[in-house]
Design a protein that fits this description.
This protein has eleven helices and 30 strands. The chain is of the alpha/beta class and 468 residues long. It has three domains: 267 residues, Spore Coat Polysaccharide Biosynthesis Protein SpsA, Chain A; 63 residues, no CATH class; 105 residues, Jelly Rolls (Sandwich), CATH 2.60.120.
Amino acid sequence: MIIPVILSGGSGTRLWPLSRTMYPKQLLPLFGQNTMLQDTVLRTSSIAQTGTVMCICNDDHRFLVAEQLRQIDVEGTIILEPVGRNTAPAAAVAALAIAASYPGSLMLLMPTDHVILDREAFAASIETARSSAESGSLVTFGIVPSAPETGYGYIRAISGSTGAARPVAEFVEKPSLERAEQYVASGDYFWNSGMFLFRPEVYLAELEASSPVMLAACRTALHRGRRDLDFLRLDSEAFSACPSDSIDYAVMEKTTNAVVVPMQAGWNDVGAWSALWAVQDRDSEGNVKRGDVLTHEVRNSYIHSTSRLVAAVGLQDHVIVETADAVLVASKDRVQEVKSIVEQLRLQERDEPLIHRRVYRPWGSYETVDEGERFKVKRITVKPGAALSLQMHHHRAEHWIVVTGRALVTVGERQVSLVENQSIYIPVEALHRLENPGDEPLELIEVQSGEYLGEDDIVRFEDNYGRL
């Protein structure tokens, strides 16, 4: 049996402004209708048994990951990392959990931020690697290079080796163009995909030899972990003490037991807007257009609109990405530098690197429509059967107006049912709760007023989602 382990970490800063810290690229539908996380999970449907998928994610993303798995009718285990410690500890935690629950299984480790166009070829590569992994090899998948790419790391197979799985000679950092051309011409080099297949106990033995402190910390973090709703929460103190390292550095570069299986499956790691342009269908002028977009004399460009009309004239090789609160315009050959804009925003302590104007919560979402001195207006959506926490605010009052659906509102000791066009006032420091008792989404407008309107002015007394 093969257990897929999906690594859903990272913030994807080079795909700003769509990708944000609290809503990163793996949770976005950047290619097709499904999100990248959903595509990664569905890609394993012909390989794994139902219910065996394991996702490892950031605590802040837990409800988004759970909801996206629910949307594609997939059940699995979601492990929460209290802090990011790179891929080697994440793989160790997964290996420990799988060895305990599914002895004798193989572990397929995959990042969520890849596009793979040919699922059949992907599945065939996994099947090719199965026998090597079962016999005790650490299998990595090398993408057969289609060009001398300087943005990827490479894996060099031992020269002259043959067979479906070739022994690994070394892992190579991102090369110069001249060196990359030599790599491609040799036939011994492959792009490093960051995907692996191995027996959990083999990986754990290698990690014990190369980084025993890391393995001990992961064991403790898992042993002291606790169930929290549908999640497995690692112990924060133990995992925070774990060294941070990648699988490549911690294990694969030190072992003599690594083999590479070549893969040709239309792979792209979608690390920048230019990569997203490259893997999507383009019109007769070479443009990728998503959303409400009009162009005139525009060629070989990527233009993405999320909330309004975007019009472009006389451009070539550009990227334009519009969201409700930010617009990116960049030359396509310099999109790797988007991260410098994100860094400037962070230094200014602005919200744009962190969240979108629409913010997702386990009960639904809210979007700030307008704000000014001592007031803020939000549009709130509550999912059927969901409820916000029982809470109060020290500094603001709220006025709720129902737009569609039904609301059950608790204010102090009383409960009030509201329908379309009805409203209620929540005074400062009043204990209150909003629920949707219906089977349709509840939409309402919230008007806040007061001396301080920050999201940290919330005191929770009860919460269905463990956020006290």
